[in-house]
Design a protein that fits this description.
heterodimer, A: mainly alpha, B: two-stranded antiparallel ribbon, 4% strand
Chain lengths: 164, 273
Amino acid sequence: MPLNIDFVQILLHMLNFVILAGGLTLLLFRPVKKFMAERKKYFEDKEKEIAEGMEKNESLKAEYEKRLSSVDAEIEEMRLNAKNETATAAKEYINNAQEKAAAIISEAEAQAEDRKEHILDSAQTEIGELVVEATQKLLENNATPDRTHELYDEFIKSMVRDAQ
Amino acid sequence: MKKKISKRRAIFIVVWLALIFTLLGLIIALKEPPGEAESIKEVMKDGVLHDKNKISLFGILDVNPALISAYVVTAVLLLAALLIRIFAIPKFKYIPGKFQIVIEKLVEFFDDMAHANSPHKTGFIAAYIFSAGVYIFFSTLFELFGLQGVTTEGLSIALPAPIADINAAIAMGFMTYAVILLSGIICNGPVGGLKVLKDFSLPISMSFRLFGALLSGLLVTELVYHYVFLSFVLPVLVGVLFTALHALIQTYVLATLASTFYGEAVEPRKKHT
């Protein structure tokens, strides 16, 4: 053959390259590519994770800013609510107190009335007793048997008169 | 004081050795070449055809020395790949070290090239151009080591770069064409195959480009080596430069061509409505 071309040697070269290509692909190319793909995925996941974190932080920040801007109004509303609640509670307390006071007063009045009546009763009794006692003493000092009989008679007569 | 003496001594030794080598060079250069030496014509012819010196392949067949070189390169590359696979790849880290960067860059370079030139299908062609690139690059650099082989005539010769043999270049060219053609048929049917067949000159151009590029470097180097007075310093520059540049350029050219033609062959057909 011209140029020393030899088909057997060409085939031997092809065989050599096929063996080499297979070996290099299996031993070097694929494992390295696999490793690089794994690493790429790892960093992509990390990046995604960071982006998600950033997004979450941004939304939290926005939410906090929104809340901060509305916090004055919220505080005012809370203050008004508290004031109203306090006023209601105070009013209720006063009403209760007034009711209680009225009840106490009425009870006290009733008790006082009872007491008054009781005192009047006992005073009347005592006065009666005193009158009786004084009368007895007076009678004891001024009474004579005749006068006593006279009084008894008068009494009986008045009783009869009342009965009639 | 001691440092001063040792520095002086070093300068003296360098100057002394330079003087000796210069004198020796001049003596050899001015000497008449031996009568039995190969003529430049014979050297060039052997460099191109490799028809004179043969090496026995396991006693089965007498082959060109380049085939032995090819098997040596393959054995070394496979051994290196095996060692890397067993000892280095399991220890790869997400933040790579220097060696890991080199390996990753090598794989990434061919993978990116496959993606750029053949965006539709990349898996197979990426592995193919990676293997072809590594093979061409290291087999071209192989000649720098000057490994010796024994010819069937009992002579010692330096093993050449495998691609410097036309058989190796033809094998690479036709195999690449076959890969492109078969991939075109598999992906796009007979029409895909026809698309590749119209570039019937591709295997020949690929083969002869590889062979020619390597051969030109070889011939210039042989020319430089042939003349004794050019044998000092210059061969180092010429040899290394030619070899290293050829290694890089031919790797890049073959990988680019293979991936581009592959990309065209496997590109999905546009449906005209």
